[in-house]
Give the backbone structure.
Amino acid sequence: MRIAVLASGFGSNLQAIIDAIVKGLIDGRVGLVISDNNEAYALERARKNHIEAIYVDPGQCPGRENYDRKIVALLKEWDIDLVILAGFMRLLSPYFVGEFQNRIMNIHPSLLPAFPGLEGVKQAMDYGVKVSGCTVHFVDEGLDTGPVILQEAVPIYDDDTIETLHQRIHEVEHRLYPRAIQLFKEGKLRLEGRRCFIDER
Amino acid sequence: MRIAVLASGFGSNLQAIIDAIVKGLIDGRVGLVISDNNEAYALERARKNHIEAIYVDPGQCPGRENYDRKIVALLKEWDIDLVILAGFMRLLSPYFVGEFQNRIMNIHPSLLPAFPGLEGVKQAMDYGVKVSGCTVHFVDEGLDTGPVILQEAVPIYDDDTIETLHQRIHEVEHRLYPRAIQLFKEGKLRLEGRRCFIDER
């Protein structure tokens, strides 16, 4: 299984995936890291791990689909099986989603459908919920609306700050994302409508 | 602490509250049960427990605020400190909410703000989430929008039906609601904006 990771920033989930591969928790490899941000530390992280790192400049491809065509061309050129969004700050076009139907995953720091979009952790704190968490889901054309693959709850304590809560959610993310990827690899994710069942046997 | 319970149906949470009082988990008593449905088993349950049970006919009080004025008059006549909604199928008017500001609680079978309104359990199953739960919250004028007091996550399994999931959520409800009521009694619920902190010490 050849994985591509798309990231706009720090790439901590990219690192978690690389680590999980080294530990044998994921039977696959990261073939390619793509960013829309030339300054993304994720690109540096990829290079340090001898992974091809490509910056695709949105300025050179005006329009979302134009940009996505360039990305999709790269993904096909590199023979990618699974596309992993890891802090990739762009909504995918229907074209991109259609080309990799049910082969694009995202992770989000809340229990979707609660608190989609930017700053999911801050949104949860501001609302005053007592339980948040994180969600791995297949990507569709919407903003964090695709079928849920895995979720895990994370409690919010009275003395939490956005930072302490984000830290605890990140720890769960780094465990959940590799697990979802390996379930995909093993062919255990079965979609019925928008429900995703896990065939453990 | 004199509690009024407003219920439209079976009243399983009313029973859980009565049981918690008998066990000494709530330092208070249910002084009054009110229903908008003359057939509600909650009324029968109240009578069996020697609690005053009053049916207030919505047909006799057209308009939401008219109806609520009748209820509020009863609550004041009975010297009620805390109003507990337990499957009460009416939205409260701003008048009602204003008369019992931060002294009305509701329980909802989802992790709000996800899946508010009717059939929260079915909504969660249909969406395909892996974690749902239940929420005790103060009631404001909105539909399940008030400040969250307590929440607890409940996992959803692949072989769950609406019934099995509802059953597991109910069990958590019957534990969570009495706890929220006793925290209120002990003056430990502190609101800052829409965040509710619990002063445990």
